[in-house]
Structure formats: C-alpha cells, structure tokens
From TrEMBL:
Zn(2+) binds at H66, E70, Q180, H188. The lineage of its organism: Bacteria, Pseudomonadati, Pseudomonadota, Betaproteobacteria, Burkholderiales. This is Phosphoheptose isomerase. Residues 42-200 form the SIS domain. Binds 1 zinc ion per subunit. Substrate binds at N57, G58, G59, E70, N99, D100, S125, T126, S127, S130, Q180. PROSITE patterns: SIS. One of its GO terms (cellular component) is cytoplasm. It is an enzyme of class 5 (isomerase).
Amino acid sequence: MSDEIKKNLEQRVKKHFSDSIETKQKAAETMSEDIVRAINLMHQALASEKKILACGNGGSAADAQHFAAELVGRFERERRELPAIALSTDSSILTAIANDYSYEVIFSKQVRALGHAGDVLLGISTSGNSANVIAAIEAAHLKGMSVIAFTGKDGGKIKNILKNSDVHLCVPADRTARIQETHLLLLHCLCDGVDHLMFD
Ligand SMILES: O=C(CO)[C@@H](O)[C@H](O)[C@H](O)[C@H](O)COP(=O)(O)O
Ligand SMILES: [Zn+2]
C-alpha cells in the first residue's frame, strides 16, 4: 500500500471518528430529556414484572440482541436477571413466518404471540421506514404495550404512528452508520438508567 493511500485511509478513519463524536454530542444536547422518559418507561415495566421485546433489521437486529443480552445477563453490575427477548434471533420462527406469510410480519406475529399489556416494545429502525418494525409497533399498540422507537433521519413513517405515551428517540443524523452508533449509546444509557433505578 502506497503512503498516499495510507494517508488517505487515515483521513477517512479520522473523519468517521469526528463525525461520530459530533453526532453523539448533538444527540446529548437534544435527546437527553426523551432518553430519561424512555428509561422511566422501561423501569416502570420491569419493576412491575413486565418484559421488553426488541426488534430491528440488519445492524439494528444486532442492537436488539445486544440489548436483550444485557438485560437478561447483565450490564455493568451483578443483579437479578431482567426479562427481554430479541425478536430477530430464532431462525426457525423467522424463516417460517417469512416463508409462509411475508417478511413484513416476522416481528408482528411474535409480538402477538409473546406480548402482553404493560410490556414494552423497543423498535429500532434508522430510517423509521422498515415495514416489519412498523407492523410490530402496530401489533404492540393493539396488545396494550408501550413503544420505545429508535430512529434517525426524519423519523420516517414510525414518527406518525407513535402515541403520546410512547417515546420516540430520533437521532439527529442522516447517515445510517452514525445513527446506528448513537443507537448503541442509547441502549447503554437505558441499561445504566434501569440498573440505577432498580438496584442502587
Ligand atoms: O448495518 C447496516 C448498515 O450500517 C445494515 O445492515 C442495515 O441495518 C440494514 O440495511 C437495514 O435493513 C436498514 O433498516 P432500517 O435501519 O432502515 O430499518
Ligand atoms: Zn451497520
């Protein structure tokens, strides 16, 4: 690799870092109040023995799993297990529903199967437009569940279907990578906030 190519790549890497930092700083300024609302919603559900269902596609599927692992296993401290299920993990359920019905209903059918009133759905979509996350939110509402939606860009279609009692955390960025990086930070804020309220 030539020195010029190396230098160019280093510049690109540094730009990712500075853009990511900038997005997160902007998010801290504009989103903190709503992040606290999300912590409160999740804490109220978990303190009443209710559970969290989480869903998303691609990188957001990984985020849903990451979050469920931190609630069921642990985040930063030893504490009792907290109930959470990622709806993106069971390949038999996912392939059967996508094959027999459609990809659009892979999460909503699981919400109808597993969700109860008082549970919380965490729906993650950087565009706010993934049809299967939208269908999951609609199914959650019909079940009497609350919704926390992680989006970005202009919030997409999801921003129009949320209720006042739901929480919409829309990252102020247009690039999917920046939005996803900030979503991960939001998840860790939720884990920390819930642990603090429940176990400190
Ligand atoms: O991780 C990435 C891109 O960084 C991709 O896998 C990305 O998550 C997928 O394209 C998703 O299908 C995008 O869906 P969404 O965030 O718009 O709901
Ligand atoms: Zn990604």
